[in-house]
Specification:
Length: about 130
């Protein structure tokens, strides 16, 4: 059997990564096994729809929905950063999380980092890098 490092992820497997559900532990286990994810281009829209449905059905709170949307936006932003800068996946997620934190307005906000490549990209995106 051929070993692969990537896996296609359906929204039903992605949502448990964003909000606590019955398959959350299994989703994280699989995510550690397959570091590269492949998703349909419309998966972010489907994810938002799924979160809205869970909220309407009372399975999650509005705070959990907001957190799920924030987590999904970090993933989407990280993918975009990978196309713009020479980053590793984890570093793209770090920059994306920082950008979500500052609502995409870094304007010299502090970014503490001792990784030279990541620090350079953080600087180029507008953060004040402290190292």
């Amino acid at each position: 059997m051929r070993v692969t490092k990537s896996a296609f992820w359906d929204t039903s497997a992605i949502l448990p990564l964003c909000v606590d559900q019955k398959p959350t532990a299994r989703s994280f286990q699989i995510a550690r096994q397959f570091r590269k994810t492949v998703v349909w281009w419309a998966t972010p829209v489907e994810s938002y729809s799924g979160l809205a449905r869970l909220l309407r059905e009372g399975e999650i709170s509005s705070k959990e929905m907001a957190n799920g949307i924030r987590l999904d936006s970090v993933r989407t932003m990280a993918q975009s950063l990978l196309g713009q800068y020479p980053l590793r996946a984890a570093d793209a997620l770090q920059i994306a999380a920082a950008l979500v934190w500052c609502r995409e307005k870094p304007h010299h906000r502090p970014f503490v980092c001792f990784d030279e490549k990541l620090a350079e990209v953080a600087h180029r995106t507008g953060f004040l890098v402290l190292s």
